[in-house]
Each structure stands twice: as C-alpha cells, then as structure tokens.
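Following up on my earlier thread - several people asked me to post the actual chain instead of describing it. Fair enough. Here it is, all 588 residues.
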Amino acid sequence: MSPKQKADKGTWLKVLRYLKPYWALILLSILLSAVTVALTLYVPVLLGRVVDQIIGPGRVSFRNVASLLVRIGVIVLITAAVQWIVNTINNRITYHVVRDIRDQAFRHLQTLPLSYLDAHPTGSIVSRIIADVDQFADGLLLGFTQLFTGAVTILGTLGFMISIRPGIAAVVVLLTPLSFLVARYIATHTYSFFRKQSETRAEQTAFIDEMLGNQKVVKAFGQEQRCVERFDEINDRLAVCSLKAIFYSSLTNPCTRFVNNVVYAAVALTGALVCVATAGTASVFTVGSLSALLAYANQYTKPFNEISGVITELQNALACASRIVALIDEPSEIPDRPDARVLTGAKGQVDLRDVSFSYVPDTPLIEHLNLNVSPGQHIAIVGPTGCGKTTLINLLMRFYDVRDGSVAVENTDIRGITRRSLRAQYGMVLQETWLKAGTIRENLMLGRPDASEEDLIAACRAAHAHSFIRRLPEGYDTFIGEDGGSLSQGQKQLLCIARIMLCLPPMLILDEATSSIDTRTEIRIQKAFTAMMTGRTSFIVAHRLSTVREADLILVMRDGHIVEQGTHESLLSRNGFYASLYNSQFAS
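Reply from S.P.:
Thanks for posting it. Predicted structure:
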C-alpha cells in the first residue's frame, strides 16, 4: 500500500469515527433506502403486466389495467414519502457530523501551541474550518443520498433480471466491469487535482484576509496594483487546477452513459431474439417481460452514473477532509503535568536560570540567560529590535517553553504550574491591541466578569478612557466591531490599559503599552501605572527610554543576551551600550 493510500485510509477511518455516534440513523437510512429501491423496482414488473394485458385490437383487459395502474400510483406515492424521510435523515447525519468536526477543530485550535499559529497563515486555518468542511459536507451528503441507494438498486435490479431471464441478466453482468474501469480511471485522476484546488483556495483565502486586515498600509504605500497582480496570479492557478479537476470529473457522465447505452442495446437485442425464438413455446418470453427487462437495464446502469459522480465528489471531500483532519491531528501544546500546582496569591518572585531558547532550531536567540526578580521590583527591558525582549515575555507567560534551563515563579518551575493559574497572575498590555466584536463593557470585563459598575468606571478613569467612552453613543454599552471598529489606535490602547487596571493582578507586563498615546496623556497614564505597579512585580518593555528611568532594574539586551543591567544612573555612568542608546534619543 502506497503512502497516499495509507493516508487516504487513515482519513476515512477518522471520518468513520465521526459517523459512529449516528450509526442508528445510518442503519435506518440504509433500511429505508432498501425499501425505496424495492418499491421502485416493483413498478416495472407491474408495467410489464400492464403491457401483457394489451394483447391486440379489442383484446384489452381494461379492468386489470386499471387495477394495476392504481397499484402503481399507490407504490409511487409511498416511495416518494419514504424517499423524503431518507433525505431528511441523510441531511441530519451530514450536518451533525459537520457540526461535530467544526466544533472539535475550533476546540483543538484553542489548545494548539503558538508556534503552530505563528507558522500558519490565519486565512489558511479559516479556510480549513469553513470552506474545506463545507466541501466535505457536500461530498458526504451526496454519498449518503446516492451511494446506498445506488448499491441497493444495482443488486435489486440484478436480482429481478435473473428472476425474469437469467441468460439476459448474464449479458448485463459481463458488461458491468466496463463501468468500474471508467469509474476507477476518473477517481485516480481527480483526487490530486481536488487536493491542489483545496490548497490553492486556502492560499487565496489567506491572501485576502491579509490584504483586508492591512488595507491602510497597502493604500499608504500605493501597492494596490501589486496586490491585484498577486491575487490574479493565485486566482489563475486556482482556475487551472479547478478546470483540471472539473475536466476529469466531467468525464463521468458521458463515459458512463456510453457504457449504459451499450448495456441497454445488448439487453434489447438479446431480449428481442429470445422473444422471437420462444414464440409459441412453453417457455415463451413475452413482450411485457422484455419491457420490464429494458426498464431494469436502464435502472441497473443509472446508479453507475450516480456512483461515478459520487466517487468524484468523494475524492473532493476526501481532499478537504484530509486537510481538516490534519489540523485536528496537530499535536496540542504540552499538557499540564498531572501534579501541576495551581498558583494563587503570587508575590512576584521570578527567576530565570540559564535559559536558552530559539524559535528555529540551529538559530539561537536567547542563550544562558540568568535573572532574579524580587517581589515588587520594576524591571525594564530595553534593547534594539530583535534582541529578544518580546521573546522573554513569551517565556515568562509560557506561550513558549524554554529549550534549556528553567523559568520559576515563587521558586516553582512554571512547567510545574498550570498554565491557566500562571497566566492569571499576570496582566498584559501589549503594543498590538486586541478587542473583540462586542460592547466596550464586555471587552473591559474579559479578565474580571464579576466587576461592579463602580470598579469599572474607576479603572477607566485611572486609564483616562472614561471621558471618550462617555462621549460614545451608548457609553459603555456601545458596540464596537472586530479589533475595535472605528476607534483610534490610541483609544484602543487606553481600553486595553483599563482592562488590566480593572483586574490588578500581582504581576504586570507592559510591552510598549503607551506607544500609540499622545505625550500629554502618556504622562498622566504613567502616573496611574506608577500607582498600579506599587507592590507589584512589573516587566516593562520599552523603546522610549524616558519611560524606564524610574525602574528598579534595567536589563539591556543585545542578541539574546543581557549585556548590561542596573539603574538608569548607574548605566549612564558606565558609558556603555545603554548610554549610547539613551544618548541617541536625547542628545542635543
């Protein structure tokens, strides 16, 4: 078995796991499909009897014809009702399976390590959960609707034909392999194209998401034409692989119809010869029986058309399912240890012991970093871009685990502390703001849902956000869109600051927390920060060195190492790297 076949088998086995909870509905669907096929196949028998009641001019048994037609009408009505029930059941199974897959995919997304999310475009992940699951649902629904019915129809018509005339049925059986050869050829050529189509569609979704999220930058740099050209290039590739997939899948209908016509012609010719040969004998083969056989031959070959189409759609569904299954199978972040401690009431003791870390193997970033932070200390981290300041924050929050060494809080390695309780001890205000679609009140109370109105307003006053919130149409109940909607960058940052002031955790991380705020407001907020940081361990990442003068300890980082540390005055007096950074900003 080739690696591709093993992968396909594994994908289908995983899909079957999602079908398992609905086995009772699947069995009911199969049973009702069999009833539908049985009733449908009984109609040609009755029609053949109707034909046999029309012997010649003046020799028609109208009473028998009318009785048979009434029976046919009743059977058709019952078949239609049962078919409606089958379709309802199939839809229920399909969309419950899709719901379960999406639910598991989104839940799993919350457990994936940040390294995975950083390495994969957002649009590609969105495409897997939305577009790929939709394509999978279409293939699955078509499979339920036509695959069961088609298989039972083939077996049923073959049984009826054998009961009428085994010799003619043998002709049909001998020609049947032609349909399987056609279906196999089409199936083997469509999968790779449908998978390529799915991957290219994900690339297109990712590009659109990226451009929409950064439209202001695109317009500011006049890159509209280049973006259009890039989109056209992806769109052309999508068109090519889609056309190839559709071309091979469109071969299904004409090829299988050709086989069907060959089978139909063979049955008609053979049946006519048998009719002539048996005329006037004891084993006479009537015209009514021939008409029934022709109807069965037509019904026998029709499912091959449908099944070939189903196989094509299932190839597309399999390609999409493999992508969503690959997402669900991605390893989750290392779980908390069974004996992990729930950290409560942290004082702010933080120790980094011989820490080494890199995002990419063989490309070191932080090496042999040591740091001891006492409760209540204010630690400023400064240095040029890319020196490892934000990486250090990621390690403190355990967004990433260290490669070597350890990070300890309250003398406990953070790998021995539950992530949830560890992160609850930190309050973060980042340079990149994040606000969800909802009211301002909902955004502010993310970290403290039970906060009172008085506490909420007090936090907003301290962050100097109360005044602009009050001027909004609905005040604190004003609805803002995704990522803050029409609020300015400074207003969004003020809301993020107010959110932390409402929580007041024992340790704070301020990563360029006032980068988008005007100088006058920044001075006021710095005073609020000073009051908030009193007695709390604080890590302040800053490029503007004026904001870190009052820090208890300044860490100067360069190429992943702490090259200098001390107070503002002591570092200036050394006339080293910090002094050169400071003088580059403030020298007259």
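The longest strand covers residues 350-357. That should answer part of your original question.
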